[in-house]
UniProtKB/TrEMBL annotation, chain A:
InterPro entries: ABC_transporter_permease, MetI-like, MetI-like_sf. The lineage of its organism: Bacteria, Bacillati, Bacillota, Bacilli, Bacillales. It is found in: Cell membrane. Keywords: Cell membrane, Membrane, Sugar transport, Transmembrane, Transmembrane helix, Transport. It comes from Paenibacillus lactis. It comes from the Bacteria. Residues 81-295 form the ABC transmembrane type-1 domain. Belongs to the binding-protein-dependent transport system permease family. Its main location: membrane. It is a multi-pass membrane protein. This is Multiple sugar transport system permease protein. CDD domains: TM_PBP2. The chain crosses the membrane at residues 21-42, 85-107, 119-139, 170-192, 228-248, 278-299.
TrEMBL record, chain B:
GO terms for molecular function: ABC-type transporter activity; ATP binding; ATP hydrolysis activity. Pfam families: ABC_tran, OB_MalK. Residues 4-239 form the ABC transporter domain. The keyword Metal-binding does not apply. Keywords: ATP-binding, Nucleotide-binding, Transport. InterPro entries: AAA+_ATPase, ABC_transporter-like_ATP-bd, ABC_transporter-like_CS, ABC_transpr_MalK-like, ABC_transpr_MalK/UgpC-like, Mo/tungstate-bd_C_term_dom, NA-bd_OB-fold, OB_MalK-like. GO terms for biological process: carbohydrate transport. One of its GO terms (cellular component) is ATP-binding cassette (ABC) transporter complex, substrate-binding subunit-containing. The keyword Transferase does not apply. This is ABC transporter related protein. PROSITE patterns: ABC_TRANSPORTER_1, ABC_TRANSPORTER_2. Coiled coil: none annotated. It comes from Paenibacillus lactis 154.
Length: 305, 368
């Protein structure tokens, strides 16, 4: 019997074998991780530190929680917070109802019409916020030439200075949001509606369910995951509303449309108070996180995924 | 409970691109009160469409559907007093089992106490008590199937409709549920219309079976009758596993000639087939009516064929032996102790008391 020749190469260690097999994977992961660290985590961490400093390009001064103290004592901050909450409460639920209703009607249509309406409704989402705002500036034109004023004129109303008066400016922005883009939501709702098996409705037909009963007891509950998603993303987006405010009202008149995102911009780039703006940003981020968690906690308990 | 009748029912589907497709072409039948009738046939034969027309989920193109003593052509599904168990069970995923079971009764605005009693009764019959407050996703396939049946029975409908309810279950569970459904039928004394593509399910469950193909009813008969006297080659080939063998033969007097052999048939049989003198015929014989020569107790040795075994499948209780006659593969279901191996020359014995003849053109059985 022959004995096996002695091994000339040292046995491979488990670590070496592991790296040989999976090393490439780590290399591929490294690129996005580095991008995240450099362009997301580092700015966030810097901003967090900045919120405790009197920031200056020539040299920042550590001032503890002074920025936060100034912020809570600032009336404009609370006004902008209130405006943001009003804007969110005024837009998100109404938008969800409008999106759902539009989806429901589109869903009843034949395939080619569904495609047409999906594309049409999604169009505003493709257009830039600037373009949309410019179009709406024309609609809200305070003279008789304004589209909205012409429309209300048909019913005998005098022209309204939509964006120039404290009591109508925020409502105008809300109205613009209602009639704005529902495309993404419609696509999500239509996909969810298409995912409900037809047999559930057939079973409901046999089970004596009325049209309302089918809607309320079958369709709506099965739409909850989509509704929850739209609710959470809608709240986040509306808490960050900026472009329309910046382009259409500049936060005025008399801070009537100053939202928290616009206030942050103003504090940072008009007053160069970067430390205070960072503090406001962190309060906004914390608020969004808290509200999102509450939404998930209270609305997702009976969601069927 | 009630009877169900189809009078000249026709169903066509019109597609702008594909044209008109006839799913059911003039069906006529009566399902008697408390009868368990199974519709069986291959995919696209019109069996599910027939069931959906009874339910009112599909509107017939022409003809009348009668449930009990009412023509239900224009009635909405809810007004037909039927209950249906769907292939995918169609349980409401966001409702508990209790809510699923009570959904129909709640829609009917029945008193709460009555609903609770009916739900408890159905849960007890189907063994669902322990899972009544769970949701469908927490249940196994067999348990979901029971809930679907439960949802049907709480309403005491006139007719139960089952659309391939066991097709999503594994083989073992399917056998178990088959027995349970059979027992349920006896217990409820219900009129049941059941659709399946599985002929074993049809044979074991149905008091009568409606065999369909290409939208046309091929035969309506009891399982025994279908098996013993199929009206045409489709029924003969569809019912029975393995299916009936078909062998091309030519009749010359008392002799049936085929490739590689011949059978001498009795005078009475030859007279009965006189119309086919010197013409081709199809001889139909079931695998269990072909045996190996060395099997003890074979009825007679007059009808033998010497073939070469191609494949042997050992099933334990029996062997399936495949050999060729002409261009057709013939299956013999033989005793497991019968000797045979691929390539072996073997004499096979045909039991001519059980054979059938079919017209090659019409494919109808020839009564001789």
């Amino acid at each position: 019997m022959q004995t096996a020749p002695a091994q000339s190469r040292p046995p491979r260690t488990p670590m070496k074998g592991y790296m040989r097999e999976y090393g490439w994977a780590y290399l591929f992961i490294l690129a996005p991780v580095l991008l995240f660290l450099i362009f997301t985590l580092y700015p966030v961490a810097s901003a967090f530190l900045m919120s405790f400093q009197q920031y200056s390009v020539m040299g920042s001064e550590w001032i503890g929680t002074d920025n936060y103290t100034r912020m809570v004592k600032d009336e404009v901050f609370w006004k902008s917070m209130w405006n943001t909450v009003l804007f969110t409460v005024g837009t998100v639920p109404v938008n969800i109802i409008i999106t759902y209703a539009l989806s429901f009607f589109i869903f009843q249509m034949k395939d080619k019409w569904q495609t047409f309406f999906k594309a049409t409704m999604y169009l505003p989402a493709v257009a830039s916020g600037v373009t949309i705002s410019v179009v709406w500036l024309a609609i809200f034109d305070p003279t008789h030439a304004g589209l909205l004023n012409r429309f209300i004129g048909l019913f005998g109303f005098d022209p309204v200075i939509w964006l120039g008066k404290s009591d109508t400016a925020l409502f105008s922005l809300i109205l613009m949001n209602w009639l704005g883009s529902h495309g993404a939501g419609i696509i999500l709702y239509l996909a969810a509606m298409g995912g409900i098996p037809k047999s559930l409705y057939e079973a409901a037909d046999i089970d004596h369910a009325s049209g309302w009963s089918k809607f309320w007891r079958i369709t709506w509950p099965l739409m909850k995951p989509t509704t929850l998603y739209l609710l959470v993303t809608g709240v986040i987006t509306s808490f960050q509303v900026f472009i329309s405010v910046y382009l259409m009202t500049q936060g005025g008149p008399n801070f009537a449309t100053t939202t928290i995102a616009y206030l942050i911009y103003n504090t940072a780039f008009n007053f160069y108070e970067f430390g205070l703006a960072s503090a406001q940003s962190f309060v906004l981020a914390a608020l969004i996180i808290v509200i999102s968690v509450i939404q998930f906690k209270y609305f997702s308990s009976d969601v069927e995924y | 409970m009630a009877r169900v009748e189809f009078r000249n029912i026709r169903k066509e589907f019109v597609d702008d691109n594909k044209g008109t497709f006839t799913a059911v072409a003039g069906s006529n039948f009566v399902i008697e009160d408390k009868e368990f009738v199974v519709f069986v046939g291959p995919s696209g034969c019109g069996k599910t469409t027939s069931l959906r027309m009874i339910a009112g989920l599909e509107r017939q193109t022409s003809g009348d559907i009668i449930i009990g003593d009412r023509v239900v052509n224009n009635l909405h599904p809810k007004d037909r007093d039927i209950a249906m168990v769907f292939q995918d069970y169609a349980l409401y995923p966001h409702m508990t089992i209790r809510e699923n079971l009570s959904f129909g009764l709640r829609n009917l605005k029945k008193p709460k106490a009555y609903i609770e009693q009916k739900v408890a009764q159905a849960a007890s019959i189907l063994g669902l008590e322990s899972m009544i407050d769970r949701k469908p996703r927490e249940l196994s396939g067999g348990q979901r199937q029971r809930v679907a049946v439960g949802r049907a029975i709480v309403r005491d409908p006139q007719v139960f409709l089952f659309d391939e309810p066991l097709s999503n279950l594994d083989a073992k569970l399917r056998v178990q549920m088959r027995v349970e459904l059979s027992e349920l039928h006896k217990r409820l004394e219900a009129t049941i219309v059941y659709v399946t593509h599985d002929q074993v399910e049809a044979m074991t469950l149905g008091e009568r079976i409606v065999v369909m193909n290409n939208g046309i009813i091929q035969q309506i008969a009891s399982p025994t009758e279908l098996y013993a006297n199929p009206q045409n080659m489709f029924v003969a080939g569809f019912i029975g596993s393995p299916p009936m063998n078909f062998i091309d033969v030519t009749k010359e007097g008392n002799v049936l000639r085929m490739e590689g052999g011949s059978f001498t048939i009795p005078d009475a049989m030859a007279r009965g087939l006189s119309k086919y003198e010197n013409k081709p015929l199809i001889l139909g014989v079931r695998p269990e009516h072909i045996s190996g020569e060395d099997l003890p107790g074979t009825p007679n040795h007059e009808y033998t064929y010497a073939g070469k075994i191609q494949v042997v499948e050992h099933l334990g209780s029996e062997n399936l032996v495949y050999f060729r006659i002409g261009n057709r593969t013939v299956t013999a279901k033989v005793h497991p102790e019968t000797t045979g191996y691929p390539g072996m020359d073997k004499t096979f014995i045909f039991n001519f008391d059980k054979v059938h003849f079919f017209d090659p053109e019409t494919e109808q059985r020839i009564d001789w």
